[in-house]
Amino acid sequence: MFCNTSKEIGGLGHGLKRKEDARFIQGKGHYVDDIKLPGMLYMDIVRSPYAYAKILNIDASKALEIPGVLAVITGRDLEKYNLHWMPTLMSDTQMVLPTDTVMYYAQEVCAVIATERYIAADGVAAVEVEYEPMKPIVDAHKALDPGMPILRPDKGKTDNHIWHWEAGDREATDKLFANAEVVVKEQVYIPRIHVASIETCGCVADFDPIEAHLTMYMTTQAPHAIRTVIALVAGHVGLSEEKVRVIASDIGGGFGGKVPVYPGYVIAIAASVLIGKPVKWIEDRMENLQADSFARDYDMTCELAATKDGKIQGLRIKTLADHGYTDAAANPSKYPAGMFSICTGSYDYGVAFTEMDAVYTNKPPGGVAYRCSFRVTEAVHAIERMVDRLALEIGKDSAQLRMENFIKKEQFPYHSPLGWEYDSGDYGPALQKAMDIIGYDELRKEQAEKRKNGELMGIGICSFTEVVGAGPSKDFDILGIKMFDSAEIRVHPTGKAIARFGTKSQGQGHETTYAQIIAQELGIPAEHIHIEEGDTDTAPYGLGTYASRSTPTAGAAAAVAARKLRDKARKIAAYLLEVSEEDLEWEVGKFFVKGAPEKSKTIQELVFAAYTNHPQGMEAGFEATHYYDPPNLTFPFGSYICVVDIDKETGSIKIRRFVAIDDCGTIINPMIVEGQIHGGLTQGLAPAMFEELIYDEDGNMLNGSFMDYLVPTSVESPKWETGHTITPCPHHPIGAKGVGESPTVGAPPAIANAIIDALSHLGVTHIDIPITPLKVWNILVEKGVIE
Ligand code: PCD
């Protein structure tokens, strides 16, 4: 691992303890719900018990009789200010509050404002809403059937189709499949799941009527973008962008779920503007699960074509995407299906075609990229399942099949058939390392032995390629705003610094790792570099933290801004040492004269001189800002191997071992990266074996609380065994790639492949996730293993 600074400086490669943890582990974090302002009011929301219904009447009279209830805000109230609809991130529109129809179970219907949180809740219980329920569309496959209600006539729609998207060469792919020696095909469904952060969403909207200024404290992964959206949506009621300040202080987990703008935020702002007092809204757990943006919900028909001896030749995937009643996917504008076209995976073949249709249903809008760089999870699941499916079909070992088809190291930068330029990779060694650690060959022997006795043991591999770090401004924007990111570094006269960023950590550890990047570039100890994010009044503009983009974009900006400062330091050193700039050499923390190392100036001396003794004509101070527009995305990768034992009497599944080898290029902080991988693997185990949002035919969510929605804890998690290879990113200033999402993308197919492998000799070729003991038990009964 690259590491050439002392522990005191703490540059790249040091496993520094996280600076932010001092406050987190002592309960001293500053979360939205900790904010208490004078005169603050509380909001609670009335939600629909129906998935699709006309609102005939809202009677708030009983609620308004409760002492402490001040107002009940309805869609009709917001309509007067043209605030009842808002744009989604995908250029669709979404109701803030409905005026006449509710579109999904748990949708916001109206909001109660009161002097206390519990009085607001009493108010919610007292509001009487009269509905006329209608038959909802729950099954995405039926959304386009004739006779179905048209859910979005307001959009001029005559059916429930949202968009069609495709990538690749349809004709060449069809031709290849028509003539291929082997074609394998599976229907792969990835159900709806939901982010389950420790902290739910919430805000305090604080409108000052005298200054006409709004301070919005909120749980957002993208504070600047939110400020701009507020100004664009509510500019006409006086919220002009210089008068809007968004502050995201500590956040208890984001995972993509805190990227969208939810109606609750907008209602709280409207209430604060109307009443002239601060209004707090904090979602409860059930509201979070039932109404905020969902993730996944792709039904994919996957086909892989190959030769008899296992040369992969082509991929074809057709997907039906259920977007709920509005397309609120948090994707870059140009990519309605996110980066799904990474689905060709880690393998070298020339032809692929993928197409997708998105439809409206009576479910909550979405979908968010839940720990997944815009639909990469779905893409990786598809290809990694299909490679195993092919191995089974042709009777080849699944590791060997992967090894034979990997894109080779010397083929990078590699142009994928669906249009990506993979920056760097070295896939074989990563898989080999995982195989060595887990003892792959012995495990296969053990499996063969066990099968003779009817014992069920499976080995599953996933060799994924991720695509993170959105993104180059020529292709990537959110609502028109280009996806660059920024860093601003100010070094004070005594050589201590503050640096501010356009991103926003939700637990990732930016306060530590950004400081390490600057420490590496300038030689100022990381300990003396204070990092700040999340306040739009002070931080430079940036697009925020999601899609594992902070390291690829803002991390790069930090390095470039620091290099600008180093250039300035060189000029000052030349002046102080009375030599030309070319005669100077840099060694972390100081400039010295070539051939005369005793003549040197430390960075601290040079910074001090920038305020006290700089050359005539040079601008004083020691500050730099950089807005970094990445030349490409970064393509981290990894190979995971999972071993499972299945009880043949009960179907219960035990993960015996799980080895994860990740490659994210240069590692900034190995301890943080390992922590990211542990957390991410657990979040990959979740959809593989536990999580799924279930709806009945009336559109009611059947498992909308933690009583029924299973989130794995350390009890359910195996011991994660992690390791790495390092293939630097060729275009990133420090060679780093993102890592935050890789484990969540790579784990589900490894686990699914292992379970399916354990049952494959019974004729099982695919099982949809989550693979529960009940699903396995049913299969064992069907196959006659359990009588
Ligand atoms: N790193 C290092 N090195 C490298 C890379 C990285 O060290 N090479 C580190 C950094 O610095 C940081 C981390 O690690 O600290 C991460 O990173 P990234 O990959 O860049 O990422 P970001 O941007 O920062 O973040 C984001 C991510 C995401 S996306 C998600 S989901 C998740 C993850 O992150 N989330 C979270 N992780 C986490 N963690 C925590 N704690 N929390 C949270 O919330 Mo999305 O799109 O939103 O769905």
TrEMBL record:
Entry's Gene Ontology molecular function annotations: anaerobic carbon-monoxide dehydrogenase activity; copper ion binding; iron ion binding; molybdenum ion binding
Keyword Nucleotide-binding: no
Gene3D superfamilies for this protein: Aldehyde oxidase/xanthine dehydrogenase, a/b hammerhead (3.90.1170.50), Aldehyde oxidase/xanthine dehydrogenase, molybdopterin binding domain (3.30.365.10)
Signal peptide (from-to): none
Domain Aldehyde oxidase/xanthine dehydrogenase a/b hammerhead: 26-135
Entry coiled-coil feature ranges: none
EC number from the UniProt entry: 1.2.7.4
Domain of life: Bacteria
Keywords (A to Z) from UniProt: Molybdenum, Oxidoreductase
NCBIfam families tied to this protein: CO_dehy_Mo_lg
PANTHER family attached to this UniProt entry: ALDEHYDE OXIDASE 1-RELATED, XANTHINE DEHYDROGENASE
Record protein name field: Carbon-monoxide dehydrogenase, large subunit
Native organism: Haliscomenobacter hydrossis (strain ATCC 27775 / DSM 1100 / LMG 10767 / O)
